[in-house]
Amino acid sequence: MKKVVKFGGSSLANAEQFEKVGDIIRSEESRRFVVPSAPGKRFDGDTKVTDLLYSCYDAAAKDGDFEKILEEIKSRYNEIIKGLSLTFSLDEDFQVIKENFKAQIGRDYAASRGEYLNGKVMAAYLGYEFVDAADVIRFDKNGNLDSEKTDKLLGKRLSKCENAVVPGFYGAKEDGTVTTFSRGGSDVTGSLVAKAIKADMYENWTDVSGFLVTDPRIVKDPAVIETITYRELRELSYMGATVLHEDAIFPVRKEGIPINIRNTNRPDDKGTFIVESTCRKPKYTITGIAGKKGFCSINIEKSMMNSEIGFGRKVLQVFEDQGISFEHVPSGIDTMTVYVHQDEFEEKEQQVIAGIHRLVQPDFVEMESDLALIAVVGRGMKSTRGTAGRIFSALAHANVNVKMIDQGSSELNIIIGVENRDFENAVKAIYDIFVLTQM
Ligand code: ASP
Question: Which positions are annotated as binding substrate (predicted)?
Answer without folding.
Answer: 50, 115
